[in-house]
Input
Amino acid sequence: MHEALVDFATAAAESPELRAVLRNPQLESSAKAAILADLAGDEEPLFTHFLQVVAEKGRAAELEEIAKEFERLMAREERRLTVELTTARELSDAESGAILKQIEKAAGRKVEATQKVDPDLVGGIVLQAGSLRVDASVRGRLERLRHELVKT
Output
């Protein structure tokens, strides 16, 4: 059900027509439930029923937010840590794997990472996990050094 919800929320986010239908206050909840059931199909009856209940309770417009919250709760339950890894150049699979392994060891949790490239970093990495930001980039070090020199 988890995958189905994420996939459905992604499809809804990418479809202006579907979003318009789900957010239309003039469309009855039962009509929205029928539309969602049609879109979900018969492969996962539990998921289809979930979508119908969400629509009948008047929450169809909030499916994207529900999916995000569900993902957050699943990550917490599975002790998953979602991080964003920014590097100055594209990393090989071996390099990113080694970095993620170190993060997993330090955090004691499974890590899921998105990776970005920012050539302005010059070198090193910037790691963002929720509100925690670790800047081990050359640009960050230079910036801290400049700040220290200005202070003294």
